[in-house]
Amino acid sequence: MPKNREILIKPIISEKSLVIQSNGVYSFIIDKLANKKEVKEAVEKMFKVKVESVRTVKIYAKRKRTRIGFVHTKVMKKALVQLVKGYDIESLKVN
User: Fold this and answer.
1) What is the span of the domain harbouring residue 54?
2) What global pTM score does this model have?
3) Which end of the chain, N or C, is less surrounded by CB atoms within 10 Å?
4) Nearest by Cα to 92 from 30, 27, 37, 48
């Protein structure tokens, strides 16, 4: 795992991500250059859980209108991390 960049940037806390958390799937915004193996190692090391699978999705820039003109949002990468049954991340649970 490269030491010069952060793999996990932040967790995604939305209505949809909270619904899939009941199935053991957690979603994170990750570094654009990170691969699935690096994401798996980072989640296992940070939260001390076992990861079953990782799915990644690239979120492309969108054109937004502002009063100044048009701007583009940032390009991001999202990871959906499936944990082994019996494991969960308590710090990301919202009651």
Assistant:
1) 8-87
2) 0.86
3) C
4) 27
Q: Which of 31, 36, 22 is nearest to 89 (CA)?
A: 22
The Cα 8–Cα 15 span in angstroms is 20
What domain count does the chain have? 1
> At residue 93, does pLDDT exceed 90?
no
Q: Is residue 74 part of a domain?
A: yes
Structure-token match 């701007």, residue found: 71
CA distances from 84 to 26, 42, 43, 89 (A): 12, 15, 12, 11
56: domain CATH number is 3.30.70.330
In the numeric block, which tokens belong to residue 20?
């899939």
| Local structure of 21: helix, strand or coil | helix
